[in-house]
């Protein structure tokens, strides 16, 4: 008989337990940043569980696909994958894992030879820019970014202002922007 795993909704109060795994992990992935996890949890209905020494994130993609983030921790990786595959089966979904770093891919291939199919999707890959490149935006590579910035400057009346408690309060209402007619600032 298969048992359901009790995954917990991710909250700000879970930072200590999450960062115990993420900050000490040898894997680097922007999706493992606690800030990113919290920012995207509403869209992906992110949940987590500690399973046999591993931190596991479970989430739902926009097309109702179930996915698990690459696990973090120490233990029997093959056994963990069997547990997660069973959990996916109980959800009526195929087993799908995202955010697999090259080292984790090697571990999975060694422990589960021929059992998994790996697909690299560039849209899900991390990307890194050098600070100097973003400041200057020189060259053909950055032409689309320059075009986007120029279009923004041409179409919008914008200004830089210091962040105050009033502005900070307005930013929290931004999420309800379609229902909020105007955010009025009183200086």
UniProtKB/TrEMBL annotation:
InterPro entries named in the record: Acyl_CoA_acyltransferase, LPG_synthase_C, UCP018688
SUPFAM superfamilies in UniProt: Acyl-CoA N-acyltransferases (Nat)
All residue ranges annotated as the Phosphatidylglycerol lysyltransferase C-terminal domain in the record: 27-164
Record's protein name: Phosphatidylglycerol lysyltransferase C-terminal domain-containing protein
Protein source organism: termite gut metagenome
